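Reopening this ticket.

The earlier resolution said the output was attached, but the attachment link was broken on my side. Pasting everything inline this time so it's all in one place.
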Amino acid sequence: MSIPYSGTVRRSGGVVSAIAKQLRGVNLKAAKRITVKFDPFSENVGHTRNFLHFISSPKIAVTNPNCSLKTEVVCDRSEPTINISIAPSIAETAKVKNVLIKSSNLTCLEILQLLNKHISSLAPVEQVSAVVQTKSEKKKTKKK
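Inline output:
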């Protein structure tokens, strides 16, 4: 007598695939400026620096070319913070001007999840208009 299989087919990809999944969902159209401030000699600064590395990639920058990314390296033993300024047009509707993330006790995955929850959700939805043309319609436009 055999026992029926009730588990998953394969294991999860782990933290790296979870970070990759969150990075695919990042949309900075609602952000005007991102300021990452950290002390490099602090205890819990590694995840903030990793977040800075991920957010500065070209694929993320394409989502909003007008969003400026600023890094402030301080030496005052302050905790790492990420300050995100919301674009004025979106700030009026959302009634939020800034989002401050204190990242001293957060992992890179948690920071990306918060970014997607609070910033990417505010981004305006693109209207994709797919017009299907028949062959005869394409020929008519070419002749004109």
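Reporter confirms the inline version is readable. The helical segments are 15-24, 46-55, 58-61, 88-94, 108-118, 135-143. The chain has a mean pLDDT of 88.
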